[in-house]
Design brief:
Rossmann fold; alpha/beta; 258 residues
């Protein structure tokens, strides 16, 4: 080889050795109900539903490059794509029956993550089209866990985030009956990672105080403020952005400990 070209080829070889292909991203699927959903995916969001936010809607910014190190036990890649498939009004059963789980299952790849938070609609005894008793609820949770594992992905069970009631003597209490305990039982039975968002949200909302949580976290406001709610709103289940951000922070903080 001509001596003139040797340094050139040597430099190229060194550059190739130093080059590392970027790691694949991890897909983080969210399945659940309206408290998790991303409403910006709905047409006319700003006109019809703003300022409604699910915590999944604001979850992506938590996975910036510098914060991934905080969840490195769960996520081995250098980027995360949050795929929010949660939908309002869905229970564990209806999410499955409508084919929404099938869509997630087909897209799952090894080491992806599926975060599972249902309960608000499963417990709706007065709405038989969505109601699921405790036995059925646990069975559908098992299905989601087992099929996630079939694909080599990682399931994380989440107890349902609390509503903004009942309050007594300045403290918030569990509004979901035995559904959070059912999630915990399945997590223990199948050795699944668990985030007890019911208790985490109860603690966080209590610490913040009923007045502030009611006016800033949940969808409670006077008439004339937002186009989609000309008569105002009184809703102690769904979140404004500040509430969704607070819940998303609780979930991310819990992920650091898994």
């Amino acid at each position: 080889m001509n001596a003139v070209f040797k340094p050139l080829f040597l430099g190229i070889a060194i550059s190739l050795l130093a080059f590392q292909a970027p790691k694949k991203h991890t897909q983080l699927f969210l399945i659940g109900d309206s408290t998790v959903a991303d409403y910006t995916l709905d047409s006319g969001y700003l006109e019809k539903k703003f300022p409604l936010n699910g915590w999944g809607q604001v979850f992506q910014p938590f996975f910036k490059k510098d914060s991934l190190n905080l969840v490195k036990k769960l996520i081995k890649t250098d980027s995360v794509l949050v795929v929010d498939k949660a939908r309002g009004g869905r229970s564990t059963r209806t999410f499955f029956e409508e084919g929404r789980w099938a869509e997630v299952y087909k897209a799952l790849k090894k080491d992806d993550i599926v975060m599972i938070q249902f309960g608000h609609n499963d417990a709706a005894v007065d709405k038989p089209e969505r109601y699921v008793n405790i036995t059925g609820y646990k069975e559908y949770l098992r299905l989601y866990v087992n099929q996630t594992r079939e694909k080599g992905a990682i399931p994380i069970l989440i107890t349902p985030v609390n509503r903004n009631y009942p309050w007594k003597d300045g403290k918030l209490s569990n509004v979901h009956g035995e559904y959070p305990n059912a999630v915990k039982a399945v997590a223990k039975e199948l050795n699944v990672q668990l985030i007890d968002l019911t208790q985490l949200s109860i603690n966080a909302f209590t610490a913040k105080g009923q007045a502030e949580v009611t006016s800033k976290y949940f969808m409670n406001f006077e008439k004339g403020l937002y186009q989609g709610y000309p008569d105002g709103q009184k809703d102690n289940t769904h979140f404004q952005k500040e509430g969704a951000m607070a819940v998303a922070q609780l979930v991310f903080n819990a992920m650091k400990k898994l």
